[in-house]
Design a protein that fits this description.
2 copies of one chain form a homodimer. Helices cover 28% and strands 20% of the residues of chain A. By secondary structure, the first copy, chain A, is of the alpha+beta class. A 3-stranded mixed β-sheet of chain A has the order 4-3-5. In chain A, strands 1-2 form a two-stranded antiparallel sheet. Chain A binds a DNA duplex through α1 and α3.
Chain lengths: 135, 135
DNA sequence: ATTATAATAATAATCATTATTATTTTAAAG
DNA sequence: CTTTAAAATAATAATGATTATTATTATAAT
């Protein structure tokens, strides 16, 4: 893997942001420092970094994927009002004790997603804000 | 909500299939009984049934959404080999005890997704099969 | 400095999903 | 039974997110 300024910026952007940005948001943020970067480069590098195990990809229904630089086991919660994704500490899960359905599965990952309304949105004044506020 | 043969077929198809079919798979299955049905009708009705609480939508990274007619709390596991989605019984989760991150969240849902390799794929002979086998 | 490799920007293409619209079904009222 | 209004459909176009292509540029090893 050869160095590139673009990849470094993309990685730094995801690591330093608390919002688990979507590819689009990463694009908007990185463009401030590197206005010529292209969206394809953002997608390619995000996926590359996920494949290399340096980031993880988060999928919720009906919203585009988000990216997270925190690698330890933890969960995420999507605010249904503003669409932001937050971290949550993991509940204790006894995976060994899980009853599996169709025979034997080799489990390779566990992802716990919550949905809800975040504190900001509960506080009535920010009903319709979104990730954009972080740009 | 007015009756339609198409919606009944779509609903029956999801309910009777153990594979949590994607919209595309529902389309292929329903077309056998109603060859003139259109893909838009399938999407519209699946989403309608989700909104009405009769089905749930399942999202994993990198694969299209799947639909499930089983409504009680349970988890899902995606086979990374064949792409099928299976049911799993829920591990016990003490949601009340969860430490929340940014202040107070109103939690409205919890979705636990596993990834792994299913029994069929572990048995070496079906490395590359997919949902299509169920059509 | 030269050169092979990998990465990029720009753009086109794809895939999943949603919207539009003219036509057909449904079901309720006369 | 017809008539009629509302809702649903099929067909198709449009959108949005993501991936692929390609010619050019940057990286890093020789």
């Amino acid at each position: 893997m050869k160095y590139s300024r673009q990849r470094e910026l993309i990685y730094k952007t995801v690591m330093e942001n608390p919002i688990h940005p979507s590819a689009d948001t990463v694009y908007a943020l990185v463009r401030k420092e590197q206005p010529t970067i292209s969206l394809g480069t953002v997608y390619r590098n995000l996926n590359l970094l996920v494949r290399e195990g340096m980031l993880q990809k988060i999928s919720f229904p009906n919203v585009s994927d988000h990216f997270d630089g925190r690698l330890e086991e933890h969960c995420h919660i999507l605010c249904q009002q503003c669409g932001r994704v937050y971290d949550m500490d993991s509940p204790r899960l006894d995976i060994a004790a899980l009853q599996k359905r169709p025979g034997h599965f080799r489990i390779t990952g566990c992802h716990i997603y919550f949905t809800g309304i975040c504190e900001a949105c509960l506080k009535h004044f920010n009903q319709f804000e979104s990730e954009d506020e972080f740009l």
